[in-house]
Model the fold of this input.
Amino acid sequence: MGLLTNLKQSITRVTDGLFASEEPKRIGIYGPPNAGKTTLANRIARDWTGDAVGPESHIPHETRRARRKEDVTIERDGREVTIDIVDTPGVATKVDYEEFLDHDMEKEDAVRRSREATEGVAEAMHWLREDVDGVIYVLDSTEDPFTQVNTMLIGIIESQELPVLILANKIDKEESDIQRIANAFPQHETIPLSALEGQNMDEVYEKIAEYFS
Amino acid sequence: MPEVTSGDGDGTPPEEDGLDDGVRVDMISGARMEGLTSMEKIRLILDGVRDGNIVILEEGLTPDEESKLIEVTMTEISPDEFSGIEIETYPKSSSSSTGLFDRLMGKEEQAQKLTVIGPANQIQTLHKDENLISALVSRK
Done:
């Protein structure tokens, strides 16, 4: 692609940003299964609107449809941003119904859950390519962040030039290692939090207002 | 979806011929992938992986193709038949990302990262860092 074409596209992106309508930006909450995405979505929604987004569970793939909570207005340090929160199913490259059998599920239910989970992951990928304006990437800070799903998703988000905020969740747990996440994605800022306990949410809201306003 | 047909000597992986004792590895060159559309690449990969093969791409996929690969893989998962893929590439180092100046100059980031893809139930990653991927491959 030539210099002029690229320059034109860059200028268009900048002017689009300057003169964009006041419609809320759709911010997708992404990450691997069981990172605490829905817990975070519920925490944000409850703090600013009083409602929840969806049910939380320790069983992977509890969220199997993208859910949108509209018009969540967050105010911090004089900044105000109105966003639609899109809670997305955890992204994976494999879904085996047998892993649900370990959670005391009958085979029929496990098969149905895995089928819904695969549809959910496909849906999440589609949203990422087409329908979100920014991403909150949630990682479980007790787990190794050097996974292929994380590497690929961050690469996809970067290639779309979407603003991304990386959150190291579950800092209330003893095994939490925030630095490991910061080392894995040094090109991005890592914000620690516990969505479950509400720890460090002030900084999270500050960063949301900064990144997505 | 149109099928990529194999002409003489075009490098399309040959059909398996009763080789049940081992694990087949298809190493696909960047040149072989260059002329294919995104969906043709994904089809080539998934057809191989669903046959139980390990597919190694010399130059990997673009982020957009990786996104579509995940999406298509999800639509093909079927209980007791196909549970998905294991895919490994080296994590991108922060210094390799294309800067604004490069993009303005029309220099797009090249994928060019060796990528290993296999059936989720046959390949298990043992270790991965920026310079080494170690995986255990088992038979069907």
In short: Residues 22-212 of chain A form a domain with the Rossmann fold fold (CATH 3.40.50.300). Chain A touches chain B at residues 1-3, 5-7, 10, 91-97, 111, 114-115, 118-119, 121-122, 125-126, 128-129, 146, 148, 151-152, 155-156, 158-160, 184, 186-187 (CB under 8 Å). Chain A has seven helices and six strands.
